[in-house]
Amino acid sequence: MNNFWQELKKSKKNEPILALAPLAGYTDSAFRFICKEFGADVVYSEMASVSALSYKSDKTLKLLKFNKKERPYVVQLFGSDKNQFIKAVKILEKKIKPDGFDINFGCPVRKVLKQGAGSKLMGDLSASREIIEAVLNNTKLSLSIKVRTSAFSVDLIDFLKNISDLPVSALMIHGRSLKQLFSGPIDLELIKESRNYFSGVILANGGIDSLDQARDVYRNTGVDGVAFARGVLGQPWIFSEKFQNVSGDDRKKLAIETALKHLKLVRKNRGEISYNEFKGHLAWYLKDFSGASSLRLKIMLSKSYQEMQEFLSTIEV
Ligand SMILES: Cc1cc2nc3c(=O)[nH]c(=O)nc-3n(C[C@H](O)[C@H](O)[C@H](O)COP(=O)(O)O)c2cc1C
């Protein structure tokens, strides 16, 4: 098996591995590329449906394409049908060639739960084990999993005990329960304890918004790294030591410069008609600017990349 995770761990010595967590609607190729340039060690795709992939959905396959500079690149999958997972990894290995696969056991969205996927799958020990085994038996690439601290009646330690004999390479723990959804404290004690039940690479996730905080979590829990999620939106330089303390006008200049670069890349990758999808990112980049609400309105009213680009170029810092 090709296990890039161990190589990554070795290369980092006494520093945390820094991952870009999967974020549906945000972590497309352009954003992953930008994060990689700022120093992300490993990047995840947005979650992709194994059901769509097993029908060779061109749209889904297109969304999973990547630039070689994004490597190591992990494709995250969600679903609940073992055979669809098998089909999906076979298709992706041939057509996309990522470095690893990840299975989503944490998504709390109703539409996903209804399919028996995401957190619902974490709550079913036998189904989750079966799917992990099926993927492991049908790919040469390394497999990681992304979980919560608990889902339904299953907690993280039960979950890890149930798969302790399987060669899963990495584990990303969103340190909140399904009940907490996306807010509230992170259970650092449980993350620390997970080390006793999982021998691969462990990444802590949840509410980590700076490199300093990432290092604190790394030192205090014994994990191998952290994954930034919402903390990276509007500030992908979070991965870079150089920009840790950037503030005031310098920060604004960096935001505009990065937004312009990002915009050009999305436009090139996805074509003119995708401009609406960039509005979310743009609002994050301009979040701390004065008059943010009128800027947001301008973003919402933009009707093309050209308009967004012109508007960004006229913002004075
Ligand atoms: C808009 C949005 C989209 C997300 N999409 C995914 C996804 O596709 N797959 C996944 O495993 N988690 C997804 N997550 C969860 C994040 O990866 C992360 O676990 C969560 O936001 C907690 O980290 P944070 O507090 O640093 O944001 C998403 C979260 C948000 C807010």
Write the layout of secondary structure elements.
Blueprint lengths: L3 H9 L4 E4 L8 H10 L3 E3 L3 E2 H5 L3 H6 L9 E6 L3 H14 L4 E5 L5 H5 L4 H4 L2 H12 L5 E7 L1 E2 L2 E2 H7 L7 E5 L13 H7 L6 E5 L5 H11 L3 E4 L19 H23 L4 H11 L6 H10 L3 H10 L3
Parallel strand pairs: 1-2, 1-11, 2-4, 3-4, 4-5, 5-6, 6-9, 9-10, 10-11
Antiparallel strand pairs: 7-8
The structure holds flavin mononucleotide (FMN).
CATH architecture of the largest domain: Alpha-Beta Barrel
Order of helix and strand elements from N to C terminus: HEHEEHHEHEHHHEEEHEHEHEHHHH
What is the CATH topology descriptor of the largest domain?
Answer: TIM Barrel
Helical percentage: 40-55%
**Radius of gyration using CA atoms only:** 19 Å
Question: What's the average pLDDT?
Answer: 96
Bound molecules: flavin mononucleotide
Describe the overall structure.
This protein starts with a helix and ends with a helix. It contains 15 helices and 11 strands. It has an 8-stranded parallel barrel, surrounded by 5 helices. By secondary structure, it is an alpha/beta fold. The protein has 2 domains: 4-242, Aldolase class I (TIM Barrel); 246-314, Non-ribosomal Peptide Synthetase Peptidyl Carrier Protein, Chain A. β9, α10 (188-194) and β10 (201-205) form a beta-alpha-beta unit. Helix content is 45%, strand content 14%. The protein binds flavin mononucleotide. Residues 21-25, 46-47, 76, 104, 106-107, 146, 174, 182, 205-208, 229-231 line the site of flavin mononucleotide.
